[in-house]
Amino acid sequence: xxxxxxxxxxxxxxxxxxxxxxxxxxxxxxxxxxxxxxxxxxxxxxxxxxxxxxxxxxxxxxxxxxxxxxxxxxxxxxxxxxxxxxxxxxxxxxxxxxxxxxxxxxx
Length: 107
Hints:
The chain is mostly helical and about 110 residues long. It has 4 helices and no strands.
């Protein structure tokens, strides 16, 4: 029912807020930009080991950024579901599935 759905989302939202407060999106974006600027230098590939480490670091940071963006998007999606479900007795399957996805991301 709606109360159970909302209660579960509230608990997950607490964890989401903790994660969001730890994650510094701006800092990661700046790190990516700084590393990507290095890849534009003419001598970037002169030290292939160093170049590969920079490329790996960029990929890791982009993956991390994407993960946190996914959590943000899923949180927003659940909020949209909640707005639609306020006056409904039955929770639709899409809302339940999205809540499960959000739960897996947060855990």
